Amino acid sequence: MRFTAPSRKRFLEAVYETYHRPEFIHPDPLEFLCRYEHAGDREIVGFLASSLAYGRVAQILKSVERVIKGMGNSPRFFLAKASREDLMMAFPGFKHRFTTDGELVDVLFAMGRVISIYGSLYECFLHGYDPEETDISEAMAAFVEELKAHMKTGGNSLLPCPSKQSACKRLHLFLRWMVREDAVDPGGWSAVSPAKLIVPLDVHMHRIGIALGMTSRKQADLRTAREITGAFRTVAPDDPVRYDFSLTRIGIRNDVDIGSMMHYKGSLKRSKNSMRGVWYG
Prior knowledge:
Blueprint: H1 5-19, H2 39-51, E1 55-56, H3 57-70, H4 75-81, H5 84-90, E2 95-96, E3 99-100, H6 101-118, H7 121-127, H8 137-148, H9 169-179, H10 203-211, H11 222-235, H12 244-247, H13 249-252, H14 266-275, E4 278-279
Helix pairs in contact: 2-9, 4-6, 6-7, 7-8, 10-14
């Protein structure tokens, strides 16, 4: 089936109305953000939860739980006073797939330093944000560079490198959580426009983009992410990432069958089978 613009919009809206609800969040690292009312705590938890969002969902949830428990009731207060030595003592032997305790400590320390300089991760991001830019890619790159400036090593499995033109799915996932505000995404970064967001692109969303006729590119990189985002923007100009949560329920919820809502089932069924219980970073 070839999608026309009207049929694509009907499908996307049907998926959104059915699955864009809080009861469909679990199992998703987004659920950890819902525990915090203060945006200063939420942004720290969101950055860590999205950074660890690669591999099997069960392990992601376990790893995020361990980190946020180690930071106590208020992550922002914890990072404000924690030295590298304190952090190493709090997370000895931490391991999440490729991520080591040293990498975790490096990112936590860098966040603490950035917060001490700017007041929050949000204010740091705004320092490099230009509302006149087409999207948030330049601001995101500047934000990453600021974090790297306070890290011991340049490479870190928790921090993708935007300058390599990769899709940086986990960073865009974090920005979706913090910029959008509705029944699912908790928000907090109100000065950043949702219209500037880029879809968090992984293998799963790439296959959906192909199935919906949004891209024919074979590589899941930044160019493809922008192409798919552009297609979403024709449907929702002010909020192109509006459909990300509902569409990604295919991969992490066993009780969701979006393929049954359309004739073009093949690609979506393959996507669901290959993604069951897995997040691609």
